[in-house]
Automatic annotation (TrEMBL):
Protein name in UniProt: Peptide deformylase
Species of origin: Allokutzneria oryzae
UniProtKB keywords: Hydrolase, Iron, Metal-binding, Protein biosynthesis
Pfam family, one: Pep_deformylase
EC number of this enzyme: 3.5.1.88
Reactions accelerated catalytically: N-terminal N-formyl-L-methionyl-[peptide] + H2O = N-terminal L-methionyl-[peptide] + formate
The record's free-text note on cofactor binding: Binds 1 Fe(2+) ion.
Enzyme category, top tier: hydrolase
Amino acid sequence: MAVRPLRYFGDPVLKSPSAPVTVFDDKLRSLVDDLMETVTLPGRAGLAAPQIGVGLRAFSYLVDGQHGYVINPEIVELSTTEQDGPEGCLSVPGMNFPTRRAKFATVRGVDVDNEPVVVSGHGELARCLQHETDHLDGMLYIDRLPADQRKEAFRLARGSDWFWSAR
């Protein structure tokens, strides 16, 4: 297990849809171990594989004492009741913006043995499940912001010292 370095907004891996996991082997187990370890650092609730440079559909989470992972997650249920609250992202550090999400979410996927996994949650866990699944679809939370806030987020990101650029 290893804590892996993060990728930041501007890195193309974060804007590319992730490939489904089709091979369940020791390499996948190592990736999941790294996701599980890396998400345990302070201030972290979820971590998608693209955030550590791996374009596969997998994420880990650590919310309200619940620590786990999902491979090939698909959102299968969202409540019609919404929550509005601050959201941030490890790949867009130092910023948070109010982001509307469903108050309840369920994802279905598999574990490292290709056995079914279902994770459901309210509040912060629901937000995390939606946020991490968005990462696997090549979407950052700032892409969901209203135009004026999105423009401000992009401006702040591009002016930061962590912004990844192919310059």
